[in-house]
Amino acid sequence: MHIVVQNEIILASLQNSGKVAVMASEEDDAPIWIDDGGPFVVVTDPLDGSRNIDASIPTGTIFGVYKRLVELDHLPQEEKAILNSLQSGTRLVASGYVLYSSATILCASFGSGTHAFTLDHSTGDFILTHPGIKIPPRGQIYSVNDARYFDWPEGLRRYIDTVRQGKGKYPKKYSARYICSLVADFHRTLMYGGVAMNPRDHLRLVYEANPLSFLVEQAGGRGSDGKVRILSLQPVKLHQRLPLFLGSLEDMEELESYGDVQQKVNPGYEV
Q1: Residue 193's beta-bridge partner residues?
Q2: By the 8 A CB rule, do 95 and 105 touch?
Q3: Which part of the chain is the Fructose-1-6-bisphosphatase class I N-terminal domain (predicted)?
Q4: All domains of the chain, ordered by start, with CATH?
Q5: What is the DSSP letter of 85?
Q6: Strand 40-48 and strand 20-25: pairing?
């Protein structure tokens, strides 16, 4: 129910803006064509971490913005809506997330760095509080569901075993911090460095991986599927899923060097 309401709020806002041609949402089977003259395309995960709401754990909204592909304007509406929404992450003109937590934070990039704004509840304004965020080149925190350790491939197990013993390229023992709310885990990683990950084919390329990879790259980090740069991937389906690793550049390079880090075993977890 929470997701449906959030999805409707975002759609109504985009419809009223007069600036958006199409919106593609993780909660809809197909993109919604809004305005033939709208110059932009918006993709969104309207309420990330929704399972955590009743436990008062942080949730968020993720979004990415592309330019409308005017060369497709002659196509039928349904076809051009899908093709506009399946643009490569390299074509993003902006992306961001809103974190709903102890503070409401809007973190965004327009292609010139990553910046965070905090909501001032007394005025309703978002105030620039974190200009030009730079993710530390290395952190000391990894974020992943350790309960799935025995389903992981050997490479990922070896990487985690190595860094938490302090035997990696960074000679300090890493700590685990896992909220199971992607926006919250990613925000902490952006602030403190390290790696946030889900090694199985779970997160969506269009709605989550591309926008967050754009943000972390603009802050000096890296987004990867464990093998290649996320933004280099061409989406072929709206709800395409993949492993996702986001974080500090040196941590990500060390992680990828282990090779076998994508989890192929998926027993169908309930949680």
Answers
A1: none
A2: no
A3: 4-131
A4: 2-132 (3.30.540.10), 141-256 (3.40.190.80)
A5: H
A6: parallel
